[in-house]
Write a structure and sequence with these properties.
The protein is mainly alpha-helical and 262 residues long. The protein has twelve helices and no strands. The protein folds into two domains: 10-198, no CATH class; 210-260, no CATH class. Belongs to the UPF0126 family.
Length: 262
């Protein structure tokens, strides 16, 4: 069995699937999708991450197709949210909690299976990050709205990356192996809600061409200044002398005007 090979409890996979399905179906319900659309979004959010993981690993087949209970759970979740929409509207603040929990659980599952399949830290982090946000990315694409993970705002993809890095390092170097999954979930949830509570936001692209060009041009300007010709030096001295003379005249003019007023 796949879960015995990779030491992943079935209940953990089921919880990750249900949390993703709840998040997706609540998003579909807010967008006023019909029953079919709500169930499809629930399946995408609940199963697409795991399907992507299994396709990329290419080791054990697609786990969701070996366990039809996961598909049934997504369908039932979509139906419950669709038919009890009035109740779920009161749970809108819970969407962020469920979404963050879903991201964390998929990061743990995917990175753990990648490490168990013999991948090193970097591929495991990449796989965990891609899988953890993959369902949300596809949900936003199908719902024809900007992809949340790629938009400036609260930390979403960043939380997945950092949590996955911590988890893979702890698993690789056997640091609190038994609590590594919980620690990863806590880190991702803290980053997600810390960003919303304290305004930790990513920003859009900023054009640094002019500041960089100015810094790069400073040595050239310094060389030109040091290699001035005598004529340029004489002209510069004349300009400085003229400016100093004008400044002195302005000073005497101010003094004379004060004396005249008295």
């Amino acid at each position: 069995m796949l879960e015995s090979v990779l030491v992943v409890p079935f209940w953990f996979e089921m919880i990750a699937t249900i949390t993703g399905a709840i998040s997706g179906s609540m998003s579909a319900q807010r967008a006023q999708f019909d029953l079919f659309g709500t169930v499809v979004i629930a399946i995408i959010m609940g199963l697409l991450g795991g399907i992507m993981r299994d396709i990329l690993l290419q080791n054990y087949g697609i786990y969701a197709f070996q366990k039809p209970e996961l598909i049934v759970a997504c369908v039932l979740t979509g139906c419950v949210v669709f038919y009890f929409g009035r109740i779920t509207t009161y749970l809108n603040p819970v969407i962020d909690i469920i979404d963050g929990l879903s991201v964390g659980m998929w990061a743990v599952l995917s990175a753990g299976k990648a490490l168990a399949a013999g991948l090193s830290i970097v591929p495991a982090v990449i796989l965990g990050t891609v899988v953890s946000i993959g369902g949300g990315v596809m949900r936003d694409i199908i719902m024809n709205r900007p992809v949340t993970a790629f938009q400036p705002g609260s930390l979403y993809g960043t939380a997945a990356v950092l949590g996955t890095i911590v988890y893979t390092l702890m698993r690789t170097y056997h640091i609190f192996d038994g609590a590594s999954a919980i620690i990863c979930l806590v880190i991702i949830m803290c980053i997600r809600f810390g960003s919303m509570a304290f305004g930790w936001h990513t920003r859009p692209a900023r054009d640094l061409s002019e500041p960089v060009a100015d810094v790069m041009a400073r040595p050239v300007r310094a060389i030109r200044y040091l290699n001035r010709t005598p004529e340029n030096i004489a002209d510069e001295k004349a300009r400085r002398h003229h400016a100093k003379k004008i400044d002195q005249q302005s000073t005497w003019s101010k003094i004379w005007n004060r004396l005249r007023r008295h």
